[in-house]
Amino acid sequence: MYQQIVHSLRQYGNFSDDEITNFTGRLINKPVSKNSFLLKEGEVCNSFYFLKKGSFRHFCTNEDGNELVVKLYTQDDWILDHQSFTSQKPSINNIQAYEDSEVFEMALCDIHELIGESQSYFSLGRILETSLYSPFQGNHTLSPEQKYRRLLDEHPVLVKTFPLKYIASYLGMTPETLSRVRRKI
Question: Greatest CA separation found in the chain?
Fold first, then answer.
């Protein structure tokens, strides 16, 4: 049941078998229906999640009412709103299931307890790094074509999972620009 998460944890730190057991014992297995939210704008992110199956989009709505995709998640990704989680302030973002999904949830209070039990759990902080915003957002050094090629090389599953409008927003371009890039490639 926990094979995927154990494999992922071992990439972030050197955990003993007992530490892994202690960690997984605190997880809550949670099914999430399509279009349901793990986090809504204005809520505080008090948990982080490991995506066992399915997909999610992490987005905000700008002043014009347009949705801007911050991050896209697929199986084996860690999910959280970094800013809200670390500051414990209301989020400006939403995290919504794109399809029926299943996650493992761990509450912030459990993380604090684990860190109190073993210094090894400090390495969980590296998971927070994975939740930082897209390397494509605000990156003006890459052309649209370079961004898309990089996405294809590093995260091809995103292109297979999400519609063009989400991919374009994630890459920081319009759907029309992405369509031109795709035709070119």
Answer: 54
Q: Based on the structure, what is the number of domains in the chain?
A: 2
Distance separating alpha carbons of residues 148 and 60, to the nearest angstrom: 21
What is the distance between the terminal CA atoms of the chain, rounded to a whole angstrom? 40
Instruction: Report how far apart, in Å, the C-alpha atoms of 137 and of each of 69, 70, 170, 173, 185 are.
Output: 9, 8, 7, 9, 21
Phi, psi (deg, nearest 5) at residue 59: -145, 165
Q: For the domain that residue 48 is a member of, what is the CATH number?
A: 2.60.120.10
Q: Are 57 and 114 within one domain?
A: yes
- Where the chain has pLDDT below 70, the residues are 130-140
* Residue 12 CA, distance from chain mean position: 16
